[in-house]
């Protein structure tokens, strides 16, 4: 393995020469660097990645020297991460504003052109101080968790380091002690079942049945029988009475995966059992009564399905008492290498491989990453793993901007973001533009992801 710092520095500047210069400086001193050319892109990076320190410019629009853009970005980043150290890069014209922002909590400011040695010392000191504060906060958070949940919360082997997944886990532990219905949303392979298992494992029903049903894997004509059971002869091939999953989960928890695939007839029965605890098996008039906590999951936009008449609105609000959303793996870059180390314990990665893994869009999320690791382990059982061992060599190079690309409309951008599940790399390739260019257009149209 290389000797790079685990600390990740975000540099925000619209001047490519500044980005390249600072990136080279910090990479030569073994820091990991993330670059952003506009405030919108910087916000998304801080939202989904674990950043140790930010170095930001004060202006991002040509011929602008007021520093108001940098001020707005500073307060937005502080809102997203209150303890994040931020160093301001300022010209003499914005010096007064930079000083006011230091009084408001900025870590430091440096006038352009900066002194490399002074900047490196400031960064090292701020990151060390941030680690000390983080350690204290972690101890305090662990104490609160012990008092709030239990001595040792059960995380069912979930591997993560990202802020986004940490928030999802904290919410899962919070709702675990209640009996409310929970809807877990996110793309296929993002970890929805793991979150459901965490809720069950930390609930008062931990020793009761935990029954899983994947509605997306069952034909429409069998879903109702699977959930509610059926009497012998209720349908072709039903030669004996069948106990449904609700009966099997009585006094426990039922996890309904891909709930959006449930047909309307099954939705009506599901709503009834959630409201009253009552249902009938197919082919029977005898009413069954159960006490079941329901956790559901979907990769679909159920509100869109409600608007299209494909999903009952009353059922949606019954299931969605609390929603836990899991971002895609591409939005949780900090989880990628820890997962690789879990899937390939003891294996060394080249820097090229690390960069390729972190740059890949992972449309199949954690499942795709696990398969890529299995591939690498089989094809190269010994030695340092390279990017090509994972089949990701094409992701090392950045796609060039297409000079003939047509400027997409707001509607086209929204449709592409929906189709690509918010994966910026895929949307950018679709329109033949760089990620930075796409970020600028998303910002222009007020589209978040």
From TrEMBL:
Domain Sigma-54 factor interaction intervals: 158-378
4-aspartylphosphate PTM positions: 57
This protein's record includes keyword Ribonucleoprotein: no
PROSITE patterns, per database record: RESPONSE_REGULATORY (PS50110), SIGMA54_INTERACT_2 (PS00676), SIGMA54_INTERACT_3 (PS00688), SIGMA54_INTERACT_4 (PS50045)
GO terms under biological process: phosphorelay signal transduction system; regulation of DNA-templated transcription
GO molecular function, one term: sequence-specific DNA binding
Identification of the protein by name: Histidine kinase
Record keywords: ATP-binding, DNA-binding, Nucleotide-binding, Phosphoprotein, Transcription, Transcription regulation
UniProt key word Secreted: no
Pfam family, one: Sigma54_activat
Domain Response regulatory: 8-127
Database matches in CDD domains: AAA, REC
